[in-house]
Amino acid sequence: MGTTAEVAPSQYDRMTELKAFDETKAGVKGILDAGVTKLPRIFVNEQSLPLDQLPVVGGDAQAEGIPVIDLDGVSDDPAKRKEIVKEILDACGSWGFFQIINHGIPQSMLDEIRDGVRKFHELPTAAKQAYYTREPGKKFSYFSNYYLYKGPVTNWRDTIIANMAPNPVDPEDFPEVCRDIIIEYSKKVKRLGHMLFELFSEGMGLSPNHLTDMDCEEEMLLLGHYYPRCPEPEKAIGINNHKDNDFLTILLQDFVGGLQVLQEDKWVDVPYVPGALVINTGDLLQASL
Does the reported pTM lie above 0.70? Predict the structure, then answer.
């Protein structure tokens, strides 16, 4: 798959090309490794507006928008905790998104989990193929495009999913290249998630354990997205606009950024803040607030 040829609309069979791509089990990274210089047709985002026509907020308006909440003192200063709870509720009411700093996960671990995800995705194709599947329920799986056969455009993205809860973790279920950091990072995120659920519960005037007692913490998935270099980035999309159908998403960005939030019909960039984690209140939690 080193080159691609122009295909007349009457000759383009999208489903056949999707199946051919899926059956390689090589993902988007495999296409890049094959040396393509032109974006394959299934990845061309024909529904997008030109970059200069996208309604995006930037500059000072952006900087003053997405809240950044400092969690320092949340566990040992009752007055500070009350302030943080209010900041979180205000952010949920106006944005549904916010960033947190001083959250208890060291920068070294954030760097290590990013590195571990990247190392897996950059393994030779043969080393990854055993994990490639679209079947749910696996403790660890690798694939490209969850909605490959249903989405309007194929995303330029590969993904790993580690199913960390409710069932106990067996280290042998995970590839060695990222095994230890996935397990250790997930423990930290689980504790952070528990604390956030306490803060949400308190903000609603309820017992700190209210959301936990509703089993909001029962399931935990760790997703690691990988966006390799794209030969024609102006024609591609990393991920479609979407909502998260969960209670809570704790997202680690890298310095490249790219995350956007829809606010009053405008796409607002979520700036990269070193050491910060992005919190997205999912549909299920929004229904509870």
Answer: yes
